[in-house]
Design goal:
This protein is of the alpha+beta class and 182 residues long. The protein has 2 helices and 9 strands, in the order αββββαβββββ. Helices cover 16% and strands 50% of the residues. The strands form 2 sheets. Strands 1, 2, 3, 4, 5, 6 and 9 form a 7-stranded mixed β-sheet that branches.
Length: 182
């Protein structure tokens, strides 16, 4: 799920105008040597909910060891619903650029997509918080050495853990009509 989330966030950031190499994992401390604007991704603990519901039933034809085709029943079951919260912190020096980028970033996020196992993952933006450090004032004048602003998005990726149960079907059967009840 983390690989899928990182890929989706990077694609949305590139579509909004940020280079892919500026999407990084969360750093411990803000550093002047790390280039701005950038996105820092932090994965929060996953929430798993046991469901066990049936998603679908299908039949498939399989060749047996003797070369004969057999029917097989395939049941797909959802074992758990997985909810992965991700903090996406957009750090910039220009608040106007941050505003334009934020709207473009949210617009570029898809509603969902298929993960590596083919299961649908729903993507939602839960919160967006704008922050800026307080002004440093000396009397009436504001001293700005670095102008910094950030916007923290909380995204939720909701997917599932599934399994497939395969069961061979009986190819044919014969009812013997000559058996009498006693």
């Amino acid at each position: 799920m983390q690989t899928f989330a990182t890929k989706v966030i990077t694609q949305a950031a590139v579509a909004a105008g940020l280079p892919a190499e500026n999407v990084i994992a969360l750093v411990k401390k803000d550093n002047l040597t790390i280039q701005r604007p950038r996105i820092e991704i932090q994965f929060l603990p996953e929430k798993l909910t046991r469901t066990g519901r049936k998603l679908g039933v299908s039949r498939e034809k399989v060749k047996g060891p003797d070369g004969e085709e057999k029917l097989r029943l395939v049941r797909k079951r959802e074992l758990y619903v997985v909810e992965q919260a991700v903090n996406v912190n957009v750090l910039a020096e220009d608040p106007a650029w941050l505003e334009r980028f934020s709207y473009a970033f949210v617009a570029a996020l898809p509603r969902g997509g298929n993960d590596s196992r083919g299961n649908w993952v729903k993507i939602q933006v839960r919160k967006a918080t704008f922050s800026r450090p307080p002004d440093k004032r000396v009397g009436d004048a504001v001293i700005e050495v670095f102008t910094r602003a950030s916007r923290l998005f909380v995204l939720t990726f909701t997917g599932r853990i599934t399994t497939e149960e395969r069961e061979d079907l009986i190819p044919s059967f014969t009812i013997n009509p000559h058996i009498r009840k006693a």
